[in-house]
Structure formats: structure tokens, C-alpha cells
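User: I'm putting together notes for a lab meeting next week and I want to include a structural view of one of the chains we've been expressing. I don't have a solved structure, so I'd like a prediction I can at least talk through. The sequence is below, exactly as it appears in our construct file.
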Amino acid sequence: MRLLLVEDSPRLQRSVGDGLRHAGYAVDVSGSGTEGLWYARANDYDVLILDIMLPGLDGLTILQRLREAGNQSSVLLLTAKDTIEDRVKGLGTGADDYLVKPFAFEELLARVQALARRRHGNRNPVITIGDLRIETVGRRVTRAGHPIDLTAREYALLEFLALRAGQVVSRTQIESGLYDEGRDPMSNVIDAAVYSLRRKIDLPGSSSRIQTRRGMGYVLTLGDA
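Assistant: Thanks for the context. Below is the predicted structure for the 225-residue chain, given as C-alpha cells.
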């Protein structure tokens, strides 16, 4: 999943940005409203995390301009104010959720996860594909009832494919959704990540749950595997 964090506090930029990357997300960070709006217009994000009080343009103005332009990315607003009027105004402008500072990172992560699922039409915190079970809140994965130990990056790749199960996902989509900009485009990081994930989730003697579509990308199959 690709996220945009627009927050002018350097401390929160570092702590929240690093925490989200550690959880397996690709994160772009901006400290100003003007730059944040440019990022939001130039890229396709699963979730935008917008502080309301920002230099340049405030978070509500960014949100309003994006919604007027038809941008449907999920938006989580951050604010130091906790009044009903502020929350109603934010939600009325088109926000999907609202979080008051100070907050626990675990709560922010849970809200981001819920918004990402919702954007892909899956409100259930558990994704079940055959005997593969993915618990998105606790990030637990089992296959035929047996737990599978995944790294944060492996889990992020599995969830990315699972939310698009049955659809061919291109390498470009995976790169954009899971990896920060600046990675060597000739790197085999995607192939290596898929290979590692297959080794962990596939059953001995069965065909791979993750199929390669040559020249197109990968698909997490819905049928038996």
C-alpha cells in the first residue's frame, strides 16, 4: 500500500513515517500543504494522512480540492482539536476518519489498515482465500490452519495481492504500492519477494497460489491450489 503523510512536525514525520515503513507500507512525506497537494495529485495513494494545521494550505483545503477534482483516496485527518464542530467539518468536507493528537501509533496503524481495506471493497478484517487466512489487524497468516511467519515486507506483498485476488497485478503496481521512490528499476526485488512469499505460503506438491502471467505480472488465484 502507498501512503502520503502530510505533517509539519519533524518529530511526527519521523516517528509515523518510520513506523508505517516498518509495517511494510511505502510512504511519501511532506511538511507543507502546498507540496502535499502536489504529491496527492501526482500519485495514486491508498490512504492520505493529513494534518489540519499546515503551512501553505491547511489539511481541509487540500481535502476539499482533491474531492472537487474527483480524487477518491481514503483520507485520515490529524488534529490537535477535539470538538464536535471540527470533526463534523472534517467529515463533511470528505474525510473518511479523524484522529486527535496525541495518539498511539498502534491506533493510527489500525485506522490506516481499515481505510485501505475499505478502499478495495473489503471491510472484513479477515481475508479468506481458500484455506489461506489473512488477519489484517494482527497481521497473522495461516494456511490450512498452520501459522505462517512472514516479514513485514512479505506480509505487505501478500495483503496487496489478496486485496486484488483474481486480478493480474503488474510489477509496476507492486513497485508503486510497496516500495519508496528511488529504487533501481532494474532490480529483481519484486521477483525475489514473490519467490520468498511463495516458499512460505505454498503447500508441498501443489501448484503455487501466486501465479505468474508472463509479460503482465502476478495474480493470487481464487481457486484451489
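A couple of points you could mention at the meeting. The two ends are 25 Å apart (CA to CA). Helices lie at 10-22, 33-42, 59-68, 84-93, 105-119, 152-162, 171-178, 189-201.

User: Perfect, that's what I needed.
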